[in-house]
Amino acid sequence: MPGLLLENLLGTNTSKRPVWLMRQAGRYLPEYRALRAEKGGFLALVYDTDAAAEITLQPIRRFGFDGAILFSDILIVPYAMGQNLEFLAGEGPKLTPRLVDSTLKGLTSVPERLTPIYETVRKVRAALDAEFDSGKTMLGFAGSPWTVATYMCAGEGSRDQHETRAMAYRDPSAFAEIIQAIVGVTVEYLSGQIQAGAEAVQLFDSWAGSLSPAQFERWVIAPNAAIVSAVKARHPETPIIGFPKGAGEKLPAYARETGVDAVGIDETIDPIWAARELPQGLPVQGNLDPLLLLSGGEELEFQARRVLDAFADRPHVFNLGHGIGQFTPIAHVEQLLGIVRNWSR
Ligand code: CP3
Prior knowledge:
Blueprint: H1 4-9, H2 30-39, H3 42-47, H4 49-63, E1 67-69, H5 76-80, E2 84-88, E3 92-96, H6 115-131, E4 137-143, H7 145-154, H8 162-170, H9 172-196, E5 200-205, H10 213-234, E6 240-244, H11 251-258, E7 262-264, H12 271-277, E8 284-288, H13 290-295, H14 297-310, E9 316-320, H15 330-342
Parallel strand pairs: 1-4, 4-5, 5-6, 6-7, 7-8, 8-9
Antiparallel strand pairs: 2-3
This protein binds coproporphyrinogen III (CP3).
């Protein structure tokens, strides 16, 4: 039996709402911090498949979320494409060599860096089946090509992605090769996750909001559409959620043109606008402000209800507009779950 989450992604408008939170496995959980300290770092956790499976399950055991999102990172794809990857404490990820001053041809791909991730998916899927009777959904994910390219080119995160945006204008054919290479690896990577037991997958396009309309068509919509059609050719039954963060008024075009089964929206979008402007019946995921979850109180309750009410007429997966912050109190997550579980349409 498909769980509540999968039902909504497949287009059924259920009376109760499924809920999961982006970055639900992570630093706001004491049990995550304990395991991370023991294993000595983020990448060590990702490549210890027992630990990664355990971390994926931690928020399900504690809160009973409807979906378990694979514990990994979008930067595993550049790592498998041959860049070196480090997560430096307090500094965020570093990829070398940066593609603004080196070429794709200089990289030697290391596809074995993807295989342990599939092992984690298998372990989580088996544990979900063994421990929970009511259909929990296993979610896989990858970064979208534009967002992944911003890290590959600049070698690190940046506030406005200016180096990558400039490179895409300066040398569109070299940049298109990078995007195409990411598309190819991402299709394999998502298919591998689905074969291992992922029941739905999400494409995270965290930096989709920094592009002008024509660049958005070229570097966000087109590559996501290519991934969706290639993954669907192999796995037609598996829903794909697209999350183009910051896409704003470009969301309806993204929803129509990429072929995603559900669209994730961030907290800058008015849910009432989204309910009106997005294709009728299209499942939507989102979009409570993560800072409301940090603050809690009556405003959290009011705004969470507003999101739930806005999407009453279409399938909806309750989520935040972006990842949960590391200082979020556990009690506020519990408060939110109470609100979502008490609601029905
Ligand atoms: O959602 C989940 O719980 C699943 C796991 C997951 C992680 N990263 C684990 C992680 C997912 C889906 C991601 C996606 C991701 N990673 C994105 C897209 C979504 C978004 O947040 O915009 C991006 C841009 C990244 C790249 C990345 N990974 C950065 C910039 C950082 C450092 C900043 C930070 O938040 O720490 C990471 C590290 C990272 N990825 C952590 C986790 C739990 C923190 C590692 C730690 O210090 O313990």
